[in-house]
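Allow me, if you will, to draw on your knowledge of protein folds for a short while. I have a record of one protein: its chain in single-letter code and its fold written as discrete structure tokens. Kindly check, if you would, that the fold set down in the tokens agrees with what the sequence suggests. Thank you for your consideration; the sequence and its tokens are set out here:
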Amino acid sequence: MSMPQLAIEPWGNYSLALAASVECLHVRPWTHTCTTPEILKLGVEASPEFSCLSFKVTTGHFIKAAMEGVEYGVMVNSQGPCRLRYYRMLQQKLLKERGFNLFIFGLGYDGIKPPLIRHFNPTMNDFLRCCFRARLKVVTIDELETAAWTKRAVELRAGDTTRAMNACIKDLDQARTVPEIKAFRKTIPARFNQISVDVNRRPLKVALLGEATILRNSFLNQNLEEILGGLGVEVRNFFLLGEEMRNIFNIGTGSKYGWKAMRKLAKPYLGTPVGGHALASVAHTLRCAQDGYDGVIHVAPAGCMPEISVRPILRKISQDKDIPVFECSFDEHTSQVGLVTRLEAFVDVLYDRKTKKEL
């Protein structure tokens, strides 16, 4: 009997860690670290026109998996006003209407054991071993991402950081055991230190925040991090899955990026939950103003209710705290050429502001 396959929704490089986490279920993970034009096209054709880009891309991902004979899929659930809480049911209906038998499990907010775990029922030892391995891969990816953001803004040869990052991700994917992952992790500083940098360059520091799918999917955000790095900008993407997991499981709640701290910081501007990562968008914008960031880029799928709801608040914070906020919405029609033009103008404004402050 062949081993069943499980499609994991696309989460960029984190897909590798999520794939590692399901191996204890004795299933073969089906995933991609990057969305393809074919997957997006399938999702756009199947989805309601008014649905957001995140819905369309995950729908296309599951349709592509079903076309290749995958039996199961898994995606995150949500609580609160965000429409993500309905996505799994709607996508299941769309698959059924097209004659596909792929069943989508929801992950989270359903007791200690999510339905996915209850269905495949792994032993406790297998479950804990794979969870630990997946967590280790997540924090390793966080380290890789952070190193890349710093180096890309000052690299002498364009593309060196991206090539180093791609090689590291490939090696991490091949690390199958905890000792192998730990051994790889120790090599990260040396591998990035090999990149030649301009020590005299003083990069801008810009935060990326907003809706998680767009933040983590380089295909959907038109390679936003690489574009900014090429413009001499050191970015910090505020969706790091390691931090998100610590918040979900209430680990390290005293952190300034913990939910308790974010709620307290955002309360003067946002007193009502609006779902998604809107609270984080408001809190991180305030935090960036305190920490001396040169600017903030807020990304969201066009029509994303939580993120669109807080944009007037972000504009108010921008005025009150004197920190520029660039609003960037994405759908399947977004042009990279237009995005680059707007980003270049925003970066020019930031450089002018920084120069005037230093005079």
About this structure: The first strand starts at residue 5 and ends at 8.
